[in-house]
Amino acid sequence: MASATGIPEARSANHGRGEDEPLLGRAGDASQQEDQGLQFNFVIGTAVIAQVGIWILAATIWASVFVQPLMLFSAHPLLNSAGILLTTQAILLLQPTHTPKQKKQGTNIHAVLNLTSILTLLAALVVIEYNKIDHSGAHFESPHAILGLITYILFFLQAIIGIAQYYTPGIFGSTERAKSIYKYHRMSGYVLLILSFATISAATQTTFNKNTLHIQLWAVVVASVITLVGVLPRIKKQKLGLGT
After folding, report:
1. How far apart are CA 197 and CA 204, in angstroms?
2. Which residues does residue 8 pair with via DSSP β-bridges, in sequence order?
3. CA 161, 192, 80 angle in degrees (round to 5)?
4. In this predicted model, what pLDDT tens digit does every residue of 153-164 receive, in sequence order?
5. Could you report the per-residue pLDDT of 165-207, keeping only the tens digit for each?
6. Does the pLDDT at position 3 exceed 50?
7. Is 236 helix (H, G, I), strand (E, B) or coil?
8. 39 confidence band (pLDDT: 50, 70, 90)
């Protein structure tokens, strides 16, 4: 907008920032446009990089499982990798939203994707526990098993708290109080994604993987890093309480 002198007025230092400013890049680089559908959120900004990484990871695991004779245990890595794939999609979908309408729509689908992920992970846990009992195997002894148990528990807590914050805010005393801790839910979500990749990495060091599946640690690490390179730059500073 021009001033009375005809000289364009300087824009406010905060113009285009806030929830429109990603952790890396320019304001608006990772934001859903007003006329765009939610489906575009899966590829906005660096999301394409994240998609490449998470699909490489899933394909690596699935290929290693399907080239071997299928058994009950086969469902464990298949379900776990599918759960992490769904969780990643849920994150990518919600990150670019910034208007009230986008947030409402995005949160509802985010919840559905994460609920499906939780059910998938729960099924994976049931499979491995049944398999352990059926073969009189040791429970939660390896680093992978311990990390896996921690990851499962945190996933379930994350889902319960997230649903309660948004759909039953009265539990926290008021809607405003529930909103005040949204940032912690977001932070823990990113930490949990990283923990999931660490758990998958630890799985490559198990005896069963070394003798049967042969999933390579380097392949998991590279795919995980690629995924995070795509996910983390899209983090909105204000949503984590890092900006004004």
Report:
1. 11
2. 2
3. 100
4. 999 999 999 999
5. 999 999 999 999 999 999 999 999 999 999 999 999 999 999 9
6. no
7. strand
8. very high
Q: How far is the CA of 183 from the CAs of 19, 87, 160, 189, 223, in angstroms?
A: 12, 17, 15, 10, 27
What is the token pair recorded at 142? Answer: 């390896």
Tokens 């499979």 label which residue? 127
**Using CA atoms, how far apart are residues 28 and 97, in angstroms rounded to an integer?**
11
User: What is the C-alpha separation between 173 and 210, in angstroms, rounded?
Assistant: 51
Question: Letter for the amino acid at 69?
Answer: P
Cα distance between residue 34 and residue 112, in whole Å: 23
End-to-end Cα separation, the chain, in angstroms: 24
Residue type (1 letter), 193: L
Residue 22 has pLDDT above 90, yes or no: no
Helix ranges (H only) for the chain are 47-66, 75-94, 100-134, 143-167, 175-180, 182-203, 207-208, 217-231
Instruction: Give the 3-state secondary structure of residue 8.
Output: strand
